[in-house]
Amino acid sequence: MLLTAKYVLPVATPHIDDGAVLVRGDQIVEIGQAEALKTAHPDEEVRDFGLAALMPGLIDLHTHLEYSAMRGLVDDLPYSQWKLQLMSLEQRFEPQDWEDSALLGAMEVLQSGITMVGDITDSGASARAAARSGLRGFFFREVETMEKARIGEVMSEAAADIESWRELRDDDRLVVGIAPHSTYMCHPELFRAVAEASNDEDLPVSIHIAGSRDEYDFVKYGSSRLAVEFRDKYGGNEIGWLPTGVSPVKYVLQWDLLDVANLLAVHCTQVDDDDIEILAAHDVAVAYCPRCNAKLGMGMAPLGQFLERGIRVGIGTDSPASNNTMDMFDEMRIGLLLQRSVSGHEQFFIARQLVKLATLDAACALRIDDRVGSLEAGKQADIIAVDISHSHQIPTMYPYSTLVHTANQENVLFTMVAGEVLYERETWHTLDTERIAARADEMRVKLRA
Ligand SMILES: [Zn+2]
């Protein structure tokens, strides 16, 4: 199949005007000028997208597909109160709700040009939704307990799930990892157990860390809402908690979590120079979640400092429960504007850097940039086409700027994963979208009752 459009943005190399990408099986075979490729392959089926950009699929480095039906449920509370309220309302979900909520998420991400997610999941519904829809992803099995005595049991339950989730597909689109919930819901020995399991079984690890002032104060001083209301409601107060006197990053360092080979730290808005140094020294990757962090008042991650120190960074939406949409264009735009707004002329980010963060750099953060993240011959054909022909988008002076400053999820025309077309102009080839929409309304009623 020969895909053609006004612009081809390989990301790793300069963009091509009137370009084309030749796909055979699950791989990209050739990239170049449309006319030259058409002449060289006269019998190839051609799909032309006109005034559009063909680019590598977007990678949502951090989300929770299974929380999609909680879109807009708790919109106007800061992080700790948001978390408390969400945890209380999610008790109303039954197993089927988690499944359908994750399918709603899969439907949204495919329509949004996201071909791969980094997803922390408790139920496994996210992994099953990806398996069914054809989406690529890393699915991190969440583990939590504040009770030291329960760590063995928690880890063996997780091991059983990890084993079964690996069987969900017989190709390599799904990678399963493990995710200790947070500093405030894990006994420190659990971090050590996760690190051991990760090193023994080559499991990638992800953790939400240093994401709010409340978390920072809880770890360092033993105070904050997370120390009081949260533990009153969800347990832990009977176990006790001694303030550690250090930052969240230093705390998990002391418990060996940073020794794992493939660790993705999510948020990192509450980090100082020492913390950044530690993350860099341990080659920890970071998921920058600018919209979620702004919406829940979590602070802003020092993106420029991360990149200066050589830290691998990508962009995450953190799910509709905290962010309302999994729109990576919004994420790139707001992520760019926030940094410019705060940093002024220093560390002045450009549109192309944000597109790279949302594609190739995110692949690098998960250490699969040899397979996805850019349009290159030999890589997996994870490709999207984004319409940039609307009146608010023309003329397109520079395609990267057009994408970051004018595009949105609804401009995506086409989403392909591993050479398989999963979404094209309002048609999803792998999902029963009518049923999912009907279930979304049932879940709304249940959550709002
Ligand atoms: Zn999250």
Structure commentary:
The chain has 449 residues and is of the alpha/beta class. It has 2 domains: 2-56 and 379-433, Urease, subunit C, domain 1; 58-365, TIM Barrel. It is built from 18 helices and 17 strands. The chain has helices at residues 34-40, 79-89, 95-111, 125-133, 151-165, 188-201, 213-221, 226-234, 248-254, 273-281, 290-295, 303-308, 320-323, 328-343, 351-357, 360-365, 399-406, 433-448, and strands at 2-8, 16-24, 27-33, 46-48, 52-56, 58-63, 114-121, 136-143, 174-180, 205-209, 263-267, 285-288, 313-315, 383-387, 412-417, 420-424, 427-428. The strands form 3 sheets. Strands 1, 2, 3, 4, 5, 14, 15, 16 and 17 form a 9-stranded mixed β-sheet that branches. A 4-stranded parallel β-sheet has the order 6-7-8-9. Helix 14 (328-343) packs across helix 15 (351-357) and helix 15 (351-357) crosses helix 17. The radius of gyration is 21 Å and the shape is globular. The model has no long low-confidence stretch (mean pLDDT 95). The chain binds zinc ion (ZN).
What general form does the structure show? Answer: globular
What summary fits the major beta sheet?
A: 9 strands, mixed
Number of helices: 18
Count of individual domains: 2
Structural class: alpha/beta
CATH class of the largest domain: Alpha Beta
SS strand fraction: 15-25%
- Give the N-to-C terminal Cα separation: 49 Å
Show unreliable segments: none
Using only C-alpha atoms, the radius of gyration works out to: 21 Å
Q: How much helix is in the residues?
A: 25-40%
What do we call the CATH homologous superfamily of the largest domain? Answer: Metal-dependent hydrolases
